[in-house]
Amino acid sequence: MKFCKIIFINTFILPFFISCNQKKNCGSDFNAFIEKFKKDSTFQKQHIDFPMMEYYSDEDFPMDILERMTTEDSYSFIDIENDLPTELRNKDLYDVHINQNQDTIYYQKIGKQNSINITYKFKCTQKTYHLIEIEDLTD
Q1: Are the C-beta atoms of 134 and 122 separated by less than 8 Å?
Q2: What is the pLDDT of residue 99?
Q3: Which residues pair with 67 in a beta bridge?
Q4: Pairing relation of β-strands 104-111 and 128-136?
Q5: Distance CA 66, CA 135 (A)
Q6: Predicted confidence band at 130 (pLDDT cuts at 50, 70, 90)?
Q7: Residues 75/83, Cβ–Cβ less than 8 Å
Q8: C-beta of residue 57 within 8 angstroms of C-beta of residue 67
Q9: What is the tens place of the pLDDT at every residue in 65-114?
Q10: By CB neighbour count within 10 A (0-12 exposed, 13-18 middle, 19+ buried), where does 111 fall?
Q11: What was the pLDDT predicted at 73?
Q12: Inter-CA distances, 87 with 3, 9, 91, 113, 114, Å
């Protein structure tokens, strides 16, 4: 009976507590992290895993997805607040969704009745979040 309890704890209870602790180790407040990431260029650069892949729609052929690799040398500040064309920057035109899948957080801007579709993919590494990928499918 004691052996069954140990197996139950190791199989079901322990992974749950490890999972909860991992989320806390990453800094449970992603909102505070993203606000600092948006404003502080030094902080931002320190929280990007280089080289970082960016995927985006081809202007001439929107169904084609192009990619580029951003290296530390080619990095420039990513202005998440103003990453859309001027005519689409009105915050009433899109919603921000933050979804978590285990140790990955997807910060998404999804248009209400337009083609806005940007996803910033953050991964929990070294007890904090790091941007690992950008997918901009806005037409």
Answers
A1: no
A2: 96
A3: 55
A4: unpaired
A5: 10
A6: very high
A7: no
A8: no
A9: 999 999 999 999 999 999 988 888 888 999 999 999 989 999 999 999 99
A10: middle
A11: 96
A12: 65, 56, 11, 14, 11
